[in-house]
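Bug #77: duplicate submission created two jobs. Keeping one. Sequence:
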Amino acid sequence: MTTQTTLAQPHSENYSHIQQLPDPPREPDMVQRKSLSTMDGTLGPHFAAFDDVLITGEIYLRTDEEDAREFAPAFIFARQVRDPERVIRRNGYVISEVCKPPDLVLEVGSRNTGMRDFTIKREGYAALGIGEYWRFDPSGGDYHDVPLAGDMLVNGEYVSVEIVAESDRRHWGYSETLELELWWEEGKLRFRDPESREFLLTPEELAADRLATHERAYAEREAREAAEARVEGERAERMATEARVAELEAELRRLRGE
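Kept job's structure:
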């Protein structure tokens, strides 16, 4: 089995020859899994119009096929990826194949890997040339050094992104890559548009919004049909009244001998 080594080759949707990388070990942490699901379900719709944006995670991140490092970010974001589906089928982000490092990675704090996230991984991601590195700790800092942290690559080294602590329950920082604010809000990860100041809807909120829209459309249709039935009833009643009046007038003319 051969493996294509560069995405600069002509695009093809035949992925049958791609050699998959193995699955990284999964963290037995339901809070972490929920955070990952929220990221994918929230940012996916937001960037749905861009076919060159890759949103994935929990796959190996390596420089090339010979690289055996164990970096497997919880979340990977990259723009200008010529074939995002190929990276997903590869089950790994191989920088030599994509021809660029990810623009942003994020780690979710867990009991087993928390300290590595803000030490070894921070140094490693900087060395790989990843533009932004974010860390989110649902516990509020028990696994990471802080609830929320971001770093931006400047001259090969990470410089901390300013994090605003509005209260013990709300922290946020701005991502130039996503052009969104990342929020730690009572242990939940949220994304906010800095212009509209509206939070992107989570998968649960999207589902609720779709349901509300469906229920509103159903109620509007029911009201419209009821109004149409009422108008039709009034029209039929008016026509019946006019017919009765015509009958009475005709009977009156008959009695008058007209």
